[in-house]
């Protein structure tokens, strides 16, 4: 019997590779040349839209009936005022879709030489990401540039795709163009793809699709643990992480990094636990920010829960619902981190009364 989700995995990897190459070229062509101190986010916007167009086009050709939950929508680009940006996006998306890459590509997926799309097709592809999500059936998630702040700083960001069926993540692919292939060997360069299929394990590849390496979270204790956490204090309550570290006797400083590259580093053993607690502004976590990471960690032998110890619920719509935070870690430390998180939460509650 053939393995489940083989085509889905191949399509998701092909889509993430092309979109990752596109984002790296947007950075080199646009971000480096534009004055970001003015707060001009247009390069990232162009990159986001074009990368979502590429992934969504590929998914539509391969799986025409599957709905998509994507971060972006094209309404601004359809207005006359969005024309210049739209033209840039269509050009970038077509460049990425038609590039000759070989390695697992397939003309039935709408990619390769001669596969240019019209403006309307590119805009429609972006808008296919408007699905509202839900607890039954298949759906894909796309986060074309996760960690936009990291992308603009030239640091970590990730191109993320997942397949969810009946609220369970089945396939997850995370492309990290700026992540070292092997931190112990910087001369090998950067550009990593993490992938996982339910029941079939997790692997790392290079962005060019080479050197598939199985991933298993290595053993860890509080003595060797460092928290992986956001760079942005607005995304995660970093002072809370400090208290949890204190309760666990953790002495290593946290590793701060943008995007779902944190999940990738966790499964490679660079850290030990990813802790993301809400900052209290009522923000709801988006499913595309955690679905690929969740399956990656679980398939590498780890556990992902919220601060109640409950699994993340991908069946509630575009968000994970009420925000109880995210704790991802190897089996040997997850319960310790969860216990310390609950203790720190109880302290906060006592301090309030
Ligand atoms: N107040 C908030 N709390 C938690 N996450 C938030 C947030 N505001 C934005 N985010 C999410 O945090 C993601 C980045 O996470 P990280 O800090 O781990 O890099 C953003 O993804 P995008 O960059 O794709 O928009 C965005 O979805
Ligand atoms: Mg994101």
TrEMBL record:
Keywords: Hydrolase, Magnesium, Metal-binding. GO terms for biological process: sulfate assimilation. It is an enzyme of class 3 (hydrolase). PROSITE patterns: IMP_1. Mg(2+) binds at residues 71, 143, 145-146, 289. Its EC number is 3.1.3.7. PANTHER family: 3'(2'),5'-BISPHOSPHATE NUCLEOTIDASE, PHOSPHATASE. This is 3'(2'),5'-bisphosphate nucleotidase. It comes from Gymnopilus dilepis.
């Amino acid at each position: 019997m053939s393995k489940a989700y083989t085509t889905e995995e191949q399509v998701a990897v092909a889509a993430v590779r092309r979109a990752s190459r596109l984002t790296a070229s947007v950075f080199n062509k646009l971000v480096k040349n534009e004055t970001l101190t003015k707060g001009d986010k247009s390069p990232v916007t162009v990159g986001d839209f074009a990368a979502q167009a590429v992934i969504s086009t590929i998914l539509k050709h391969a799986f025409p009936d599957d709905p998509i939950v994507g971060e972006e929508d094209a309404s601004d680009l359809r207005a006359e005022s969005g024309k210049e940006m739209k033209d840039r996006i269509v050009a970038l998306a077509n460049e990425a879709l038609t590039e000759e890459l070989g390695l697992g590509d397939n003309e039935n997926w709408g990619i390769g030489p001669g596969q240019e799309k019209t403006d309307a097709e590119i805009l429609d592809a972006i808008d296919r990401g408007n699905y509202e999500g839900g607890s039954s059936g298949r759906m894909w998630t796309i986060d074309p540039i996760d960690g936009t702040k990291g992308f603009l700083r030239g640091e970590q960001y990730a191109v993320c795709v997942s397949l969810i069926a009946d609220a369970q993540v089945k396939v997850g692919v995370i492309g990290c163009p700026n992540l070292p292939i092997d931190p112990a060997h910087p001369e090998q360069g950067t550009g990593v793809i993490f992938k996982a299929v339910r029941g079939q394990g997790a692997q790392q590849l290079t962005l060019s699709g080479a050197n598939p390496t199985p991933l298993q979270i290595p053993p860890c204790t509080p003595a060797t643990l460092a928290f992986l956490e956001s760079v942005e204090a607005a995304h995660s309550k970093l002072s809370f992480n400090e208290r949890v570290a204190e309760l666990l006797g953790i002495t290593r400083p946290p590793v701060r990094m943008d995007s779902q590259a944190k999940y990738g580093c966790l499964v490679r053993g660079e850290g030990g636990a990813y802790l993301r607690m809400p900052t209290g502004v009522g923000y709801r976590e988006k499913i595309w920010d955690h679905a690929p990471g969740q399956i990656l960690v679980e398939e590498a032998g780890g556990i992902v829960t919220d601060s109640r110890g409950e699994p993340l619920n991908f069946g509630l719509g575009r968000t994970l619902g009420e925000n109880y935070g995210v704790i991802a870690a190897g089996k040997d430390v997850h319960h310790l981190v969860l216990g310390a998180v609950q203790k720190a939460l109880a302290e906060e509650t006592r301090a309030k009364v």
